[in-house]
């Protein structure tokens, strides 16, 4: 199971807990945070957002998964709770979590070729195999399909009435070119 499926299951389990038909899902700190900051409507909208992201990504056939939409991320404490806990919840490899915890909070590599990342993810290396296996990173000659998926996601989420915002993120993906290609 990859991260978007895990988040979707978590949200569905949280909804069951609210309805009195299920236990508080793990990890408990994220569940408690979410329960303090979401209404039943928020939780339904978060579920619809992740379902939309998951469906469009799977249908695209692209390797790298999109970032969790900021509306969902805020309600799950992604920007607030312990970075290590959040990294594990989002299926970030331990090597990349450690790299982030060591103070590398932005992509700081010169990739050998164009690299596509899940927005906000910081890999330990430009070609981290574990990040690739977790659908967080891919090297590619053509990042255009990722930009098209971003546009498709934005259109689909607008139809759901989801605000598109976050001061630190520009979209669902980051695209980094080698230094030689930027000059």
Would you list the SSEs in sequence order as H and E? HHHHHHEHEHEH
The secondary-structure class comes to mainly alpha
The biggest sheet, with number of strands, parallel, antiparallel or mixed sense and barrel status, is: 3 strands, antiparallel
Number of strands: 3
- The helix content, as a percent range, equals 40-55%
| Biggest sheet, spatial arrangement of strands | 2-1-3
Number of helical segments with 4 or more residues: 9
**Outline:** globular
Enumerate the spans where pLDDT stays under 50 for 5 or more consecutive residues: none
Mean pLDDT: 92
Into how many domains do the coordinates divide?
A: 1
The end-to-end distance, rounded to whole angstroms, is 40 Å
Q: If you compute it from the alpha carbons, what radius of gyration comes out, rounded to the nearest whole angstrom?
A: 16 Å
Share in β-strands: 5-15%
List keywords for this structure.
single chain; 183 residues; three-stranded antiparallel sheet; 51% helix
């Amino acid at each position: 199971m990859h991260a978007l499926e895990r988040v979707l299951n978590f949200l569905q389990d949280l909804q069951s807990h609210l309805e009195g038909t299920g236990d508080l899902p793990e990890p408990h700190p994220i569940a408690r945070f979410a329960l303090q900051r979401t209404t039943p409507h928020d939780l339904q909208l978060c579920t619809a957002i992740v379902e939309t992201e998951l469906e469009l990504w799977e249908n695209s056939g692209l390797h790298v998964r999109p970032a969790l939409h900021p509306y969902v991320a805020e309600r799950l404490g992604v920007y607030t709770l312990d970075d290590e806990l959040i990294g594990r919840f989002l299926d970030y490899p331990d090597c990349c979590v450690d790299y982030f915890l060591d103070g590398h909070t932005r992509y700081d590599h010169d990739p050998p070729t164009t690299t596509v990342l899940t927005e906000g993810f910081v890999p330990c290396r430009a070609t981290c195999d574990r990040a690739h296996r977790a659908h967080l990173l891919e090297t590619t000659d053509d990042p255009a399909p990722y930009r098209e998926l971003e546009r498709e996601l934005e259109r689909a989420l607008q139809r759901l009435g989801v605000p598109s915002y976050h001061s630190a993120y520009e979209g669902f993906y980051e695209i980094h070119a080698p230094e030689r290609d930027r000059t």
